[in-house]
Amino acid sequence: MKIRSEFKFPYGHRLMLHKGKCKNIHGHTGKVVIFLEHSIDSETGMVMDFSKVKQIVSQYIDSSFDHKLILNEKDPLVKLLAQEEVGLITVPCEPTAENFANIIYRNLSPLFQFRFSIDVISRIEFYETDTNCAIAE
Fold first, then answer.
1. How would residue 109 be classed by pLDDT, with cut points 50, 70 and 90?
2. What 8-state DSSP symbol labels residue 23?
3. Residue-wise over 101-130: b if at least 16 C-beta within 10 A, else e?
């Protein structure tokens, strides 16, 4: 059985190596859709309580991406903004939808494994916009 839950949050980024408009700092309302797959618990009738899913994912999203400016750690703007209180987060890659999907998948999977002793995440979808999505499985 699979269940899914989605989370939206605002963030800013820039793709310093991009040849077009995305090289400029700009913002999005990102959306993460998490798919959890496991057998249905015979006592609860659930794969997992949605409130537990929300607690784990929201805590991770809030601390990692929500209202943050996300830049490649090699971006020259990092040095300029590091001293400011702008909610700067750096990643070791270009902050693309594809890389966000992989980062979120890699970071959320151990949180669920630690909390529930099972590997339940089967898929992460990261929407940069309503029409553009990257998927990590």
1. very high
2. G
3. bbbbbeebeeebeeeeeeebbebbbbbbee
Q: How far apart are CA 11 and CA 85, in angstroms?
A: 15
CATH number for position 78: 3.30.479.10
Domain that includes residue 50, residue range: 2-136
* H or E segment and range at residue 14: none
pTM: 0.93
Q: At what angle do helices 97-116 and 50-64 cross, to 10 degrees?
A: 130
pLDDT level of residue 83 (50, 70, 90 thresholds)? confident
Using DSSP, state whether 25 is helix, strand or coil: coil
The tokens for 92 are: 């070791």
- Domain count of the fold of the chain: 1
